[in-house]
Amino acid sequence: MKTVFVTGAAGFIGSHLVERLLKRGDGVVGLDSFNDFYDPSIKRANVHAFEGHPNWMLLEGDIRDPEVLEEAFKVRPITDVVHLAARAGVRPSVEQPELYSDVNLTGTIRVLEAARVHRISRFVFASSSSVYGGSIRVPFTEEDPVELPESPYAATKRAGELICKAFHHLNSPDGVLTDVPCLRFFTVYGPRQRPEMAISKFTALLLSGTPIPMFGDGSTLRDYTYVEDIVDGISGALDHATGFDVFNIGGTHPIRLDEMIELVGKAVGVKPSIEHHPMQPGDVLVTSADCTHAKDVLGYSPKVSFEEGVARYVDWHKKNRL
Fold first, then answer.
1. Cα separation, 71 vs 281, whole angstroms
2. Lowest mean pLDDT among 51-55, 133-137, 304-308
3. Residue 185 phi, psi dihedral angles, 5° rounding
4. 153 belongs to the catalytic site
5. Are the beta carbons of 257 and 217 closer than 8 angstroms?
6. What is the residue-wise DSSP string for 208-266?
7. Choosing from 153, 189, 224, 226, which is the catalytic residue?
8. Topology of domain 3-186+227-250, per CATH?
9. How do residues 74-86 score in pLDDT, each as one tens digit?
């Protein structure tokens, strides 16, 4: 049986991953800081259902704290690490670059170092499609240049990939950190989504009769990925990835911003009223995932269409956030 150490375990993606791992019989040691980026009670609700599960243990603490990490590796014998914890969001990173650098870079180094000390072989790193910056050559492939990030958040994720590569290079000859897949997630959405993310925010605004703020002319494209498909990608990386590698994990069908707003409105049952605003710093025009490599190596194939996924999210939102 695997016992997986999951950082950011109580978050949006983390809690779905924990649910999947427990269902398939793996053990999970979860770590979360429950910081105030958004209401910590939301995160606590995300993992409430796991309480009392014999294969689940939750620790509260910061990935930058070596003592917390040491405790995590001692409470149960860890076989694999999935590092999801990060300060998230492009726009907030423009305002708080030092915080993003500290959490996302120092934190990642400390988790890697703990994994090295405890001789972990597989380390899955959650990266982001934001590393592609303002590229307009679509779809994005893992071989595309990624040296022009457009936000501090994107820069920290690209730096995290490089740090992972360095740790793999230095330690894999000794049988440590031999398998280090970096997964570039493309705009994840679905139940438990963070409240400030677009689909969650727009759903709440529509249900309250408030206009939707639209930044730009509505033509920007995003490759939205349903959270269950993201978890499929992580599970595939845990089971099949070898060596150091990078994978796009996306929905593969980019949606225009104005179309996304209309589809959310359709699911809610409200015609959106739009407030127009200029593009915001750090935003990019398009994200689009070529997932051929993930399909070939990890068996990844997204299953949930955007329209179906939005309908599922709105149904969940009405039951859990109203």
1. 40
2. 133-137
3. -75, 140
4. yes
5. no
6. TTPPEEEESSS--EE--EEHHHHHHHHHHHHHH--SEEEEEE--SS-EEHHHHHHHHHH
7. 153
8. Rossmann fold (3.40.50)
9. 999 999 999 999 9
